[in-house]
Amino acid sequence: MTRIRRGYIARNRRTKMRLFASSFRGARSRLTRTITQQKIRALVSAHRDRDRQKRDFRRLWITRINAVIRERRVSYSYSILMHSLSKRQLLLNRKILAQMAILNKKSLYMISNEIIK
């Protein structure tokens, strides 16, 4: 029986998978079936964590704003600040407020004092 030479398409597909998994450790970077499973798992984790990252950053911003607002030892909290900002229709999102809390506390204090009055 003569030898049948297979095509290159499957080999190219496996090579691409191996390049994706080249940074993995052990069998996860060498064995084709394990690479396939690990690739699926990695892509699922990446998709999940992109959503989680948004959540985590929002939590971080809220924590920073709240810490700076409460520094002045006024009975004033993050929730009251955000409520009064929305009541006055000041369009400052949490990311900007958190940057102000880190880089320029005085401007954040000025805004909060104006809102208190």
UniProtKB/TrEMBL annotation:
<dbReference type="InterPro" id="IPR035566">
    <property type="entry name" value="Ribosomal_protein_bL20_C"/>
</dbReference>
<dbReference type="Pfam" id="PF00453">
    <property type="entry name" value="Ribosomal_L20"/>
</dbReference>
<dbReference type="GO" id="GO:0009507">
    <property type="term" value="C:chloroplast"/>
</dbReference>
<keyword id="KW-0694">RNA-binding</keyword>
<dbReference type="GO" id="GO:0003735">
    <property type="term" value="F:structural constituent of ribosome"/>
</dbReference>
<keyword id="KW-0150">Chloroplast</keyword>
<protein>
    <recommendedName>
        <fullName>Large ribosomal subunit protein bL20c</fullName>
    </recommendedName>
</protein>
<dbReference type="GO" id="GO:0005840">
    <property type="term" value="C:ribosome"/>
</dbReference>
<comment type="function">
    <text>Binds directly to 23S ribosomal RNA and is necessary for the in vitro assembly process of the 50S ribosomal subunit. It is not involved in the protein synthesizing functions of that subunit.</text>
</comment>
<keyword id="KW-0689">Ribosomal protein</keyword>
<keyword id="KW-0687">Ribonucleoprotein</keyword>
<dbReference type="InterPro" id="IPR049946">
    <property type="entry name" value="RIBOSOMAL_L20_CS"/>
</dbReference>
<dbReference type="InterPro" id="IPR005813">
    <property type="entry name" value="Ribosomal_bL20"/>
</dbReference>
<dbReference type="GO" id="GO:1990904">
    <property type="term" value="C:ribonucleoprotein complex"/>
</dbReference>
<keyword id="KW-0934">Plastid</keyword>
<dbReference type="GO" id="GO:0019843">
    <property type="term" value="F:rRNA binding"/>
</dbReference>
<dbReference type="GO" id="GO:0000027">
    <property type="term" value="P:ribosomal large subunit assembly"/>
</dbReference>
<keyword id="KW-0699">rRNA-binding</keyword>
<dbReference type="GO" id="GO:0006412">
    <property type="term" value="P:translation"/>
</dbReference>
<comment type="similarity">
    <text>Belongs to the bacterial ribosomal protein bL20 family.</text>
</comment>
